[in-house]
Amino acid sequence: MSQEDERWLVVDGRRWRRQDPDLPADVAERLRSHLGRGRSATGAARRAGDEDAERRARRRTDLAKRGLGERGTPWWEQDADERRQRWEGALAALDALDD
Fold this sequence. Notes:
Layout: H1 3-7, E1 8-11, E2 14-17, H2 25-48, H3 51-68, H4 80-97
Helix pairs in contact: 2-3, 2-4, 3-4
């Protein structure tokens, strides 16, 4: 896989940033769990017409995607310390949402 292929995923002609390949497996799993919860909660909140719940759910989704490296500064432009700080900060913020 070329370096460019490693960075992007194309679905139906639309290009999406791939998850940071250097994420430890357990970190990636936790972030994907939060992402799934956020997406599910967004749909439920929209169906219920609950704007506050939708805002909170979208925040969880955004934090998870940032932790995964799919949003924000591209992961290939970050050094190892910046990448680790990105996912650790995202997980701390996500876990705080559950408190």
